[in-house]
Amino acid sequence: MFFTLFYKFFLFGEIVEILLSIFILLMGLLLLNYGSDWFVLGSSRIAKYLNVSDFVIGATIVAFGTSLPEIITSVYASYAHLPGIAVGNSLGSCIANIGLILGISALISPVIVKHSSILKNSYIYLIYTIILFIIGYNGFGFVDGLILFVLLLGYILYTIKNGETPNVEEESSKKMSIITAVIYTIVGLLAVIIGSELFVDGAKDISTFLGVSDKIIGFTLVAFGTSLPELVVSITAIRRKLGDIVLGNVIGSNMANIGCALAFSGMICYIPPVKFEMEVNLILVILMVAYMSKNLIIDMVKNRINKTNTTNITKIMKNFKYSKIGRIEGLSLILIYMLFILKLSNII
């Protein structure tokens, strides 16, 4: 009788413990999502008061603000000596952004690429991913992180000089005073910092309870959780037929995830090799860029066959009208992501 009561009490205690861990994780995720929104809104308004252009705001504050959950979470995970969660969150979010978010968006409605500048950015992102694959194939250290961060700064300067970004929620920010904007920025940053600690601690406790590695938790639960803002933004944009925003959101977020979240994590502590995950990430990036470039490749082939004078890729890109990632391509991205999760979880 005594042992039966003890076992029930012990089992009840475990249930309470896992429920508490889930609650802590969800509270952290809530603070991460709302905190990043407050930070972007407040800091964007401050930049407006300082006469910073919409373009610069979009290329810097918004790009980093939407990836703030991944950045802070990965940095805290590295500080807590949980490299599996750090790399799982940063690199896993990149995989989820393409395989899941872009895939779902294309499945809902074809993602239309309207501007050649998006194509150029995708090529830069592909080159950046190849560099990531080469220098990080055997793990990430301080020098690797520094290289990735410096390259990201170069990308930002290029984007500011050559790209175009939409206005930053001007209607919401017009009514906001400078004092309110400062409060939003500070509270948002504090919410993200506290939320990242709760989120990582909850994920760590869940992984311990389930007996799985922190890397698997990082690449699945944590990566998906911190990518939820991008998912909501992308679905909203695709319903409004704004394919460039979807792709810009995916590419910009992934650049920040690698150049900040992963780079800073590598600077803080050594991150062991994740070769399989790196390979999947590279495959998804190559497929995304190939799907985006379909019409451009077709135009080049046609010009080559017709032996016209517009075989130069720069001239062809100037005449670029549009391309799209259709539902079949979106489904292929989702299938690759699902196979990745099943393989990572040792189900297949």
List the helices and strands and how they pair.
Layout: H1 2-49, H2 54-66, H3 68-79, H4 83-108, E1 111-113, H5 116-135, H6 142-162, H7 170-174, H8 178-210, H9 214-226, H10 228-239, H11 243-268, H12 275-292, H13 294-306, H14 313-318, E2 323-325, H15 327-344
Antiparallel strand pairs: 1-2
Helix pairs in contact: 1-2, 1-8, 2-11, 3-4, 3-8, 3-11, 4-9, 4-10, 4-11, 4-12, 4-15, 5-6, 5-11, 5-12, 6-11, 8-9, 10-11, 12-15
Could you describe the 3D structure shown?
With 348 residues, the protein is mainly α. The chain has one domain (2-344): A middle domain of Talin 1 (Up-down Bundle), CATH 1.20.1420.30. It has helices spanning 2-49, 54-66, 68-79, 83-108, 116-135, 142-162, 170-174, 178-210, 214-226, 228-239, 243-268, 275-292, 294-306, 313-318, 327-344, and strands at residues 111-113, 323-325. It has a two-stranded antiparallel sheet. The two termini are 43 Å apart. The model is unreliable at 5-9 and 165-173 (pLDDT under 50).
Quickly list its features.
82% helix; mainly alpha; 15 helices; A middle domain of Talin 1; two-stranded antiparallel sheet; 348 residues
